[in-house]
Amino acid sequence: MRDWISDRWARLKVWSRRQWQRFKAWIYSILVGLGLITGVALADNDVNLSWTNATQYEDGTAMPVEEIEETVLYKQSFPLDGTGMSDPRSYTELARVPPSVTTYLDANQPNGVHCYVATHIATNGEESQQSNESCKTIDVRLPGAPQGLSAN
């Protein structure tokens, strides 16, 4: 029983940490998007996404920004060696933000290649095609310690 409780407690701590990181990134994105904070110091394992909202419908006619309900960000991650990057993508939803927000901080990412696309959801509920894909490699591994140090 004690092992079961310890296991559940450990899983809850990991889940809580992940939720806190997502919430913190969402708050930062909103505050940066609203211009309330600037110059957020990014860590080496942060991914700062930015985009420009669409100004045209797919047929090329002008589209007012009021037609955009929200922007949906999608993500897929790969190991540092790139395994699986040549396979078809299967992105998972990362966040939904209002059209007034055009940045998003995906904070504290593990080592790997993190790829993102975005779509717009129109006020009529239709989702646009995906944007171009943008990827960032996070590699914050520490070097091994020197070996064979001697003092004479």
Give structural notes.
- This protein has 152 residues and is of the alpha+beta class.
- Helices cover 21% and strands 27% of the residues.
- The protein has a four-stranded antiparallel beta sheet, with no helix packed on it.
- The chain is extended, with a radius of gyration of 20 Å.
- It starts with a helix and ends in a 14-residue tail after the last strand.
- The relative contact order is 0.20.
- The mean pLDDT is 86.
Q: Provide the helix percentage.
A: 10-25%
Roughly what is the average pLDDT, rounded to an integer?
86
Task: Please tell me how large the radius of gyration is.
Answer: 20 Å
CATH topology description: Immunoglobulin-like
Could you give me the name of the CATH homologous superfamily? Immunoglobulins
- The portion of residues forming beta strands comes to 25-35%
Q: What pattern of helices and strands is seen along the backbone?
A: HEEEEEE
Count every beta strand, where a strand is a DSSP E run of 2 or more residues.
6
Q: What strand order characterises the main sheet?
A: 3-2-5-6
Cα distance spanning the termini: 56 Å
- Overall shape: extended
Structural class computed from helices and strand pairing? alpha+beta
Provide the CATH top-level class: Mainly Beta
Q: How is the main sheet built?
A: 4 strands, antiparallel
- Poorly predicted residue ranges: none
**How many structural domains are formed by the residues?**
1
Number of helices: 1
CATH architecture tag = Sandwich
